[in-house]
Model the fold of this input.
Amino acid sequence: MKSRKSTNRLIEKTALHTIQAELQEGYALSPVEAQVLARRVQHLVDEQTGFARQPGQITYQAIAIDEPPGKPLEECRKVPVHLTLVADRDAQVWAIEGPETLRRLRVHRITYEAPMQDGALSQEDVAYILGVSRKTVQRIFAYFREQDQPLPSRGEIQDIGAGVSHKIPIIRRYVQDLSFSRISRELGAHGISSMTRYLHHFALVMILEDRGLTPAQMQSIIGTSENLIEQYRALYAELNVPEHARTLERLKRTVSHTPGGANAAPDQPDASPAAGKKGGIV
Done:
């Protein structure tokens, strides 16, 4: 059942499916008529655009990078991205360092190529493109996270799935009284603005948790995924001890002093420094 669901999700991302759906809905064609015409349209497009690909590349329909989490796949905008499955250096890497290193190289390469073309690949996409199991891809993503080099998958970019893991250690280290500069060095040179945004969202979750709101209600206010909110709630439960009480309260006050308070827009972090030796989140 799970395998069939994954297959359907991948089919819904193909260019052919997108064209067919548009023809059925926009021009009232039957499924058979739409499929035949969609195949002809795709063939003509491939003839005109195929020259843009380099040897060793494929064209894949990726979800647009700006599509929000939670939106049905069939409604998401897709963009064609050229992904390099075979590059000049691959043979040398395979011969000298082995197939595992080559798999890591290819996963790293295509997950970075997609965002450069306004697309984003999920771990499911990567597994399908490379013909490997989801578990293999998950191990490779975990390997790069351990190297402080999280890959820009769709989950990482849109705060869905396991890709949000870098936010938790950043917040935990901040609460443990480490400076932004040290956190940035330890966790892959994250920018101050990004770390500020993580802390702002975490502070909002703390305030709303204290008020007894549900994760769904928090999501409607904050605008992040419910999965991320659940992780922030778990982190709050872990850190809500006397040792960290002053830091947590300082974070809450920072958000409370923002215009709009707990109902402020999530992408407007506090611009006024909070009291304390950390200088607040600015």
About this structure: The chain has three domains: 1-52, 54-154, 166-263. The chain has 14 helices and three strands. The longest strand covers residues 57-64. Residues 160 and 225 are 6 Å apart (CA to CA).
